[in-house]
Design the sequence.
């Protein structure tokens, strides 16, 4: 992990023990000192009589509540974390059990393996790499509280003389150390001890680190050697000055939540209220003067399994006059929202402009770039993994909170843009990107920027497509795009990348055939070449990172759907007479669809049986891994022999969502399984519902569209947390997002869709602060929580689709 600075007040102790290994003495000698450097709360608002409201209130004035003031962001509850006590032991690992004490490894060019040898942690190092953190052994799962004084100690030795670095550090951001130093070790056991005070704000999820990479005092890599570590202890020496403010706490979430951006006059409008009471009154109030302009009654308060809170609903669709309002109830006050015809205009521009701001390989300038302007980045040729061959793969979009570029999520993003363009005639040419004003729809200009990069990722000889291009590991969290200058590595070809590439290139040959026939012809030829590569390749393992590459994998052991999608799109491109298809036979592709569908069903069944029912992946949705519905939708719209079956398949998925939504008080379809990227799942589910509506009769289409619109409300604040998950929109939105350009700029980029609740808590910070949270409440606005608070191009793209559907 890259790091920049160290802060702390410390008293350091070190003593060398004359023995050959750390485990030789499990009771270290007395050291000689030498000086040197919870659970979410809820807001409650009661009426004066404490029991609710009596009689009509329209025309009267309601209390404004904190939600409608300028200082309206919920603050953490002080003291929600347990108070530390003097003498508390936070870490005490002696390795007597024969295990490695929950230590994990991180490598950046190094080679490190952890074992337990003679009741100590044996760090077997084969190479050091090129940076001091090339080999890292780390431990999570403890807390450092501001004002506390700690004693940290361990025994350490090596079979060579070398320098290592110990650190107690921030696990995110710039990874700076709260306490740390470089120490020299040798075959003699060193007992090291340091007293330090946590001067910074409390950290509920720091990281304990031993860096054993290439240090500045190494003239060359020392080769194979071992570092032994034992008797690791972290104790509270003095807790008298401990400050618990914000220590591992969560915001004081509101009880009353609705879409914070707002509604158009004729929209369905719903408020959700956490309450134990049935039939409470609720009031729509003007924010300008708090006057009550409408009142209604809430539904019964029913259990919501995902949030573990009784929740009532209130419909205020009758309110249609443009203006700014808030909801007032006996259980609390909502954030303000707007009613107006153009309520989504600014939002739409920012969620689309996010893709421009994620562009790689070019300088970002002007108003659209704003605070996120930067010089051209990642323009150096990249080396093909395992070879000395380099290749120009500049361009494309940075995938997420890092600067990697990945074909699989890029293809999903492009597919969503194509679907939005086709379904809702999005021809705007004034979004403020460099291509604006060229007479070509900006949405297609933006998609082409990614497609041009994807063409570079195809191997000219075989037609296979390389999975991704990244550095060997992620950069520092506050690194700007042009500051990541490490060697770029092109990871091996994968079936999933090649199949997705073939599908979107075939689709592009149809989309661009009239506007840019030369590009359409290039796209078609590339799609055919990619399809030839994967046509008979069955892969039930999927892509895995090669040795030494630690960036995102996008692994997918079900690959028949990618091959099905590619085959379907090439078939349809032939039928559409796409440029380059003149000598191709549609039957070459249509004859394969039935067999590929069977393979997909088998692969999917195998995957789910291996995962178990609790971890089975969502059925045939529009994620980056399960993408068969893109093929079904295009086939359903076609006049072919496959249309009827494809329509049935797609609407069956939509019907499952209708059924699932009835069990959720917020009308979501996830049950209690909020997975990594759940907001992408919610947006993609809504996209599929709109697709189903577009191919269904009026009555059924209305059901699908009604449920799809609930996703937009959810993502903009009508959820159990009360977050508007789009940065910069609404009142209560994420501000500490896991997104390097935002951290580098010092403020959050607007128009980013945060990942959302993840009840599997798949990062140390989330695990630390969300262990007691309900599934749909497992979200924390902290840049360290990559599993709940990262962003991605393919999370924004389904949101672009559903927002386009709503605005049309």
Sequence:
């Amino acid at each position: 992990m890259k790091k920049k600075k160290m802060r702390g007040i410390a008293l350091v102790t070190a003593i060398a023990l004359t023995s050959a290994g750390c485990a030789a003495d499990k009771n270290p000698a007395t050291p000689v000192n030498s000086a040197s450097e919870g659970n979410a709360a809820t807001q409650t608002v009661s009426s004066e009589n404490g029991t609710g409201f009596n009689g009509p209130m329209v025309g009267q004035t309601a209390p404004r509540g904190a939600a409608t003031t300028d200082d309206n962001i919920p603050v953490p509850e002080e003291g929600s974390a347990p108070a530390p006590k003097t003498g508390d032991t936070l870490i005490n690992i002696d390795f007597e059990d024969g295990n490695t004490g929950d230590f994990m490894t991180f490598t950046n060019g190094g080679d490190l393996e952890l074992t337990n040898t003679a009741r100590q942690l044996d760090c077997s190092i084969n190479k050091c790499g090129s940076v001091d953190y090339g080999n890292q052994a780390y431990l999570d799962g403890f807390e450092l509280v501001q004002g506390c004084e700690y004693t940290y100690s361990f025994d350490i030795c090596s079979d060579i003389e070398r320098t290592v670095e110990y650190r107690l550090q921030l696990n995110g951001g710039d990874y700076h150390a709260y306490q740390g130093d470089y120490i020299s070790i040798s075959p003699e056991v060193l007992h090291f001890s340091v007293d330090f005070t946590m001067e910074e704000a409390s950290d509920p999820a720091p990281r304990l680190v031993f860096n054993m990479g290439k240090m500045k005092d190494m003239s060359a890599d020392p080769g194979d050697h071992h570092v032994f570590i034992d008797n690791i202890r972290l104790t509270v020496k003095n807790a008298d000055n401990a400050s618990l403010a914000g220590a591992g706490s969560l915001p004081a979430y509101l009880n009353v939540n609705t879409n914070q951006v707002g509604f158009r006059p004729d929209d369905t409008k719903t408020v959700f209220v956490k309450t134990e009471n049935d039939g409470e009154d609720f009031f729509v109030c003007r924010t300008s003067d708090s006057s009550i302009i409408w009142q209604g009654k809430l539904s019964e308060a029913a259990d919501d399994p995902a949030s573990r809170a009784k929740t009532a609903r209130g419909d205020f669709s009758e309110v249609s006059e443009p203006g700014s309002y808030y909801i007032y109830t006996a259980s609390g006050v909502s954030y303000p929202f707007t009613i107006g015809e153009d309520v989504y205009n600014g939002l739409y521009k920012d969620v689309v402009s996010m893709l421009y701001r994620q562009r790689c390989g070019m300088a970002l300038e002007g108003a659209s770039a704003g605070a996120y302007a930067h010089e051209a980045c990642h323009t150096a040729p990249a080396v093909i993994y395992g070879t000395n061959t380099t290749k120009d793969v500049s361009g494309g979009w940075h995938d997420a909170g890092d600067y990697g570029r990945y074909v699989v999520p890029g293809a999903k993003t492009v597919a969503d843009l194509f679907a939005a363009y086709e379904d809702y005639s999005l021809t705007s040419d004034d979004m403020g990107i460099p291509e604006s004003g060229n007479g070509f729809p900006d949405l297609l200009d933006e998609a082409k920027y990614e497609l041009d990069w994807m063409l570079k990722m195809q191997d000219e000889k075989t037609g296979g497509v390389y999975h991704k291009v990244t550095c060997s590991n992620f950069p520092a969290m506050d690194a700007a795009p042009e500051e990541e200058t490490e060697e770029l590595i092109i990871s091996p070809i994968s079936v999933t990348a090649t199949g997705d590439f073939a599908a979107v290139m075939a689709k592009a040959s149809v989309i661009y055939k009239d506007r840019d026939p030369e590009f359409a012809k290039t796209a078609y030829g590339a799609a055919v070449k990619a399809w030839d590569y994967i046509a008979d390749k069955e892969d039930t393992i999927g892509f895995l990172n090669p040795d030494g590459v630690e960036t995102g994998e996008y692994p997918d052991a079900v690959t028949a759907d990618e091959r099905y999608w590619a085959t379907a799109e090439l078939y349809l491109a032939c039928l559409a007479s796409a440029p380059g298809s003149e000598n191709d036979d549609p039957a070459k592709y249509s004859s394969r669809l039935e067999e590929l569908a069977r393979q997909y069903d088998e692969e999917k069944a195998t995957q789910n049986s291996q995962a178990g029912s609790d971890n089975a992946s969502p059925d045939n949705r529009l994620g980056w891994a399960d993408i068969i519905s893109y093929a079904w939708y295009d086939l359903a719209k076609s006049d072919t022999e496959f249309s009827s079956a494809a329509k049935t398949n797609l609407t069956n998925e939509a019907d499952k969502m209708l059924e699932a939504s009835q069990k959720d008080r917020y009308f979501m379809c996830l049950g209690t399984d909020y997975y990594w990227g759940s907001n992408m799942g919610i947006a993609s589910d809504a996209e599929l519902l709109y697709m189903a509506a577009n191919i269904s009769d009026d009555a059924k289409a209305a059901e699908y569209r009604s449920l799809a619109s609930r996703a937009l409300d959810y993502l903009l604040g009508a959820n159990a947390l009360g977050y508007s998950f789009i940065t910069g929109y609404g009142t209560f939105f994420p501000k500490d997002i896991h997104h390097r350009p935002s951290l580098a700029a010092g403020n959050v980029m607007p128009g980013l869709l945060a990942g959302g609740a993840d009840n599997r808590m798949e990062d140390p910070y989330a695990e630390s602060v969300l262990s007691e949270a309900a599934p749909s409440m497992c979200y924390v606005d902290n840049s360290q929580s990559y599993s709940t608070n990262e962003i991605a191009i393919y999370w924004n793209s389904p949101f672009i689709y559903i927002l386009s559907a709503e605005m049309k």
The first strand starts at residue 9 and ends at 17. DSSP finds 16 helices and 30 strands in the chain. Residues 271 and 602 are 43 Å apart (CA to CA).
